Amino acid sequence: MIRYIKRLFHKWNELSCSKCRGRETKEIIRDRIDYTVCEIEIVCARCGAYMNYWAYGYYQEPVTRLEELKCRWWSFISRFRGKA
Questions:
Q1: What is the pLDDT along the chain (84 residues), one digit of tens a residue?
Q2: Of 2, 39, 53, 62, which one has the fewest beta carbons inside 10 Å?
Q3: Which candidate, 63, 28, 30, 71, places its Cα nearest to that of 49?
Q4: 70 secondary structure, DSSP code
């Protein structure tokens, strides 16, 4: 039962394409330095829509739904900080 719940959570936690809702991705290498990948653009495998960008060890946007929720939560909370 726990394995089933973990599998469901993992499937839910993956981000999908905003246009076609596909979950398969394709990585396009944009830059290399001495055969080491430095920048990758991540696009949808079905429709080719932009999904994310990875450069020098960091993603430009959140990779999972939980990370996206955290970012939205902290941006929401930051509006009210400092107000009495």
A1: 889 888 888 888 888 888 898 888 899 999 999 999 999 999 999 998 998 899 998 888 888 888 888 888 888 888 887 665
A2: 2
A3: 28
A4: H
Hey, what amino acid is at 66?
L
**pTM for the structure as a whole:** 0.66
Residue 52 CA to residue 30 CA, distance in Å, equals: 13
From 25, 68, 29, select the one nearest 45 (Cα to Cα).
25
Quick check: 44 and 18 in contact, CB under 8 A?
A: no
**CA distances in angstroms from 1 to 4, 12, 13, 39, 59, listed in the order given:** 5, 17, 18, 39, 33
Q: Is 41 exposed, middle or buried (0-12, 13-18, 19+ CB in 10 A)?
A: middle
Q: What's the token pair of residue 54?
A: 């990875």
